[in-house]
Amino acid sequence: MMKAVLFWSAGKDSAMALNRLKQNPQVEIIGLITTLNSDYKRISMHGIAEQVLDRQAEQLGFPVIKMWVSSQPDNHTYEEAFMKTCSQLTEMSVDTLVFGDIFLEDLRVYREDLATKAGLKTYFPLWKISLMELQKELSDGGYEAITCCVQSDKLGMDWIGKQLNPDFFKKLPHGIDPFGENGEFHTFCYNGPIFREPITYQTGEVVFRPLQIKQTDMAEEAGFLYLDII
After folding, report:
1. What CA–CA distance (Å, rounded) separates 78 from 115?
2. pLDDT of 214 higher than 60
3. CA-CA distance, 208 to 179, in Å (whole number)?
4. Rounded to whole angstroms, what are the CA distances from 194 to 98, 132, 144?
5. Is the pLDDT of residue 49 over 50?
6. pLDDT reported for residue 99
7. With 60 as the cut, is the pLDDT of residue 107 above it?
8. 8 Å CB contact between 192 and 143
9. 31 against 213, higher pLDDT
């Protein structure tokens, strides 16, 4: 029996990975791990507020271990937080870390290397599943999610707060990964088969945060647009 924790981002990939875990009789789900920004008290990359994460956890029925990092963590400080969290997991008899990654080979190798250093195994339930199959699973499975963060130079303001549905995938610009696997967009999942009840939420302002380093002086300023979800 695999004793696992899932890295939970609050988005669609985590939700679909969790659902597959729940359907696997060889997996005991011990809980979830979420990386949060210690400065803003929000989920890293997705920008979801801590209190919204807590509402998700309540409806998921699993405890959440919160891994705190700074606004701009370097690899060293991130890995320190990761290893500290893994030590805690080992004490809980956890043996496997689960991730919702789909096809980024270098990211998988990085996660596997870190887990191995911590004495843990890894599991990727969505790995190399076709995007067409994942889109069908998302729509047919009753998942509901909106974009909560988009790259300003890839999608822009028109794509923030959009519902993920067949029309969304149909209208995505050329070159954008349909599941945002390259970081073009991130999502907030508020309903689906994993939740006891849908997550209540409201949307607020949209905030732009530029990248720390511009690629060129001539390029449009790149960064991320975050939708405040409360």
Report:
1. 13
2. no
3. 22
4. 16, 21, 11
5. yes
6. 98
7. yes
8. yes
9. 31
Q: How confident is the model at residue 220 (pLDDT cuts 50, 70, 90)?
A: low
Task: Tell which residue, 67, 103, 61, 102, has the closest CA to residue 84.
Answer: 67
Sequence length of the chain is 230
Dihedral of the alpha carbons of 162, 199, 128, 117, in degrees to the nearest 10: 120
Q: Which amino acid is at 116?
A: T
Side chain identity, residue 179 = F
Domain ranges for the chain:
2-123, 139-229
Q: Taking a C-beta distance cutoff of 8 angstroms, is the pair 82, 111 a contact? A: no
Residues forming a β-bridge with 37: 42, 69
Dist. CA 10–CA 50, nearest whole Å: 10
- Domain spanning 2-123: which CATH class is it, in words? alpha beta
| Number of other residues whose CB lies within 10 A of the CB of residue 130 | 9
pLDDT band of 100, cuts 50, 70, 90? very high
| Burial of 81 (C-beta count, 10 Å sphere; 0-12/13-18/19+) | middle
Q: Minimal CA–CA distance to 98: which of 175, 3, 164?
A: 3
Count the neighbouring beta carbons within 10 Å of the beta carbon of residue 94.
Answer: 21
pLDDT on residue 218:
41
In whole angstroms, give the CA distance from residue 177 to residue 135: 12
CB 80 within 8 A of CB 74: no
Residue 72: its pLDDT value, please?
78
